[in-house]
Amino acid sequence: MPTLPPLPSSLKTWLKHLDSVRLPILATTHERVRRSLVSSSTSLREVAERIEASPSLALLVLREANRSNNSLSEPAESLEIAISRLGLARTEDLLNMLPVLAEDKIPKPLRQIQLISLHASQQASGLFANRLARLWQEIHWSSLLFLAPLWPLAAAHPELIEEWEHRVLALGEPTQKVERELFGVSLPTLCLALAEHWRLPAWIIQAYRLLATERRLLAKALHIARNNEEPLHQQQLLDADPALSRWLTQPGNTIVFANALALSSHAGWQSAHSLRWQRITALYLQVSLAELQQLTHQQAVNSARQYSASDLWHPAQALLWPWDVRRLQAAPPPPVAKDTSPAWQQHCRELLREPSAFANLLQLTTCIRDALDACGMSRALVLLADKTHSRLVTQQTVGLPKEAQALTLDPANSQVLKRLLAQPGQLRLSPENIAQFSALMPGTLKALFPGEHMLIRSLANNGKVVMLLVVDQQGTPLSDPCVQAFGKISQCIERALASFAKRGR
Predict the structure, then answer these.
(1) pLDDT of residue 142
(2) Together in a domain, 172 and 217
(3) Which of 3, 156, 181, 445 is the most exposed place for a label (fewest CB within 10 A)?
């Protein structure tokens, strides 16, 4: 039965899901790395440099080295150390584990975010590595892998990354609001959990702790950095706060600054977000803002020379045009006013409110009914499962006769219902598969939804199916926009079910 697993909505489920994602590698890169691994004339440094061209492989090697050496006191801080721990034969085995794909088959958001990681590594090397030569390897590899926890998310759910980029970087929506709606958890918290689980370099873990739970010092430093035209006054403020001064000069901050510069310039060099990170980096380096901008532009150009792709956006491209006309997308769509957004989206906003906006189950299912009606599903049935999954009872209907309101179904008499109740999933009926599944469905359900086109979806709370949705468009072929809207509504319903279950605690 075709199924559509629900998106994870908690830190634990996201961690398990993303940890299992296998990142792809380009066929050309795969062969180049393979040749270097089997060549007796290639040094360990050269092997590491070849692997660096594939951030996916670099991450896998580092993860495996740190997983296999739990007895060692410290995780590997560089790829060379990781390869030496694993050996060339094991490294080649890891290479062969990655899916080998053509460039156009790898999700574009994954390739884009890995390009940003490569750009961040270039910024870190150019801005900080010469000044902190003793730590150049930690700076280089930690800056390259800082965004690695987002790579499996971009590979498995590229549409979520694109929506986050557009809403946060292009439209300027509040980050916490967008992440709560899309993921159910904040991205820094999710990235911190993955970084700790993978035993990534200590600087990366410290950086995500800063962003997730220890933002006070960062906020104070950003405030001082705003006054970049008076460096003497800035220094006086730092001298008056020794704890802040000590924190600011920590070398591990370099990877945060480098990635923030690369990511924010992806939206626009002159954006307020980018200028904040330019100023605090200038404060860290004790240079003027103009000098810092010149340095970052030079490193962006160097990065573009090394890592170019015709269908990806590199921030260095923006240096060819006025800064204020370049943004995340060449032509980002204008923000949609709230009062002109589709009605089903307005209902979704109600479903996503936290704490839950619903005082009782009737209010919740009424909102669900209205959302299904508004998205174009002319017939809809909302059923609730009892604790033992022995009954499905109607809660709401759209476009169905009166008798549907008192409908009770016994899942034991239907293979389709039993499988949908066993785990959350979706079945889309069409002329191609109706003969296969029709005999496995209750007759009363078929009588309410005559036709060959229908969607049946089961929804879960805490891993247990609690609700079943049955929708169609009067038996006619389902339109793609309505099916997509139905999918998004279903995700919102699962979030609403979880929030509703926690009310009053």
Answers:
(1) 93
(2) yes
(3) 3
